[in-house]
Amino acid sequence: MALDHHVEQLLAGLQAQGLKSFENMSVDEARAVVSTFTGLQAPSEPVARIEDLHYVSDTTELPLRIHLPEGTGPRPVVLYFHGGGFVAGDLEVVDEPARALANETGTVVVTAAYRRAPEHRFPAAADDAWAALNWVAAHIAEHGGDPGNIVVMGDSAGGNLAAVTALRSRDQGGPALRGQVLIYPVIDPNAQLPSRIDYADGYLITAAALDWFWEQYLSAPEDADNPYAVPTRADRVDGLPPALILTTENEVTRDEAEQYGARLRAEGVDVRTVRFDGLVHGVYWMSGAVPRSRELRAAVADFVKSVVAPTSAA
To answer: Which segments constitute the Alpha/beta hydrolase fold-3 domain (predicted)?
Structure first.
């Protein structure tokens, strides 16, 4: 399918500005570029309350933000990990989509920051995501959430963290998650599938850029065999919570995400995989620039509402 018209316009504008591919940037440049995605977003919706707090992982205090919708609880909870190639991204770039999700689903949406590469390589981010889940399970009741009613979610590298957190929760007796939402997740650094070849030169993320992000994140080549870095390396994926996997047609990570979904389904996990033709990596953050980002957001909201238990009080 042809590129979405708004995506085409956006890419042409970025090219005219001389935007370099990520593998040709410094870490600071990559972080600065990712932070500009807030400029591609619609105005943020008001929510009933925002709480900025911290959790502790490996003696490090890290920020998290709680987005509370109108109404009383206890409310189901979505724990959302931002993307950015393990290198970039923060709570600000996902504040607008988190607010929208809280309002649409009536859930408490928690966004959790994590230590970023290359200053903090694997397993730092994975350990932080696990610590954030355990913080939510222990403390979200104090903030209007239901600790027995949690969905993990992430986009891009955050999708990887959501997937490995679901694995870890199964393996280590963590919370019984209601679901996992993986939005164009970065799954496997060694995947050599058609989309990695067909879209090697981009859009937005090239194959070389994807390799660069993985090089910043992994501490050593053998980390690629660790299922808490690369979920496809898990010996088994049965017993995981229902999954929604969203991919876009024109991107390098498409096939590895869809292949992971096929494996989950083959081992008995309830999986919904949806590909959005004409779109590219990153559109979940582009509510102002790409109107079809609403399609991804609607799919997420519908899935969340379908897997969480009803709110116990109106």
So the answer is: 78-284
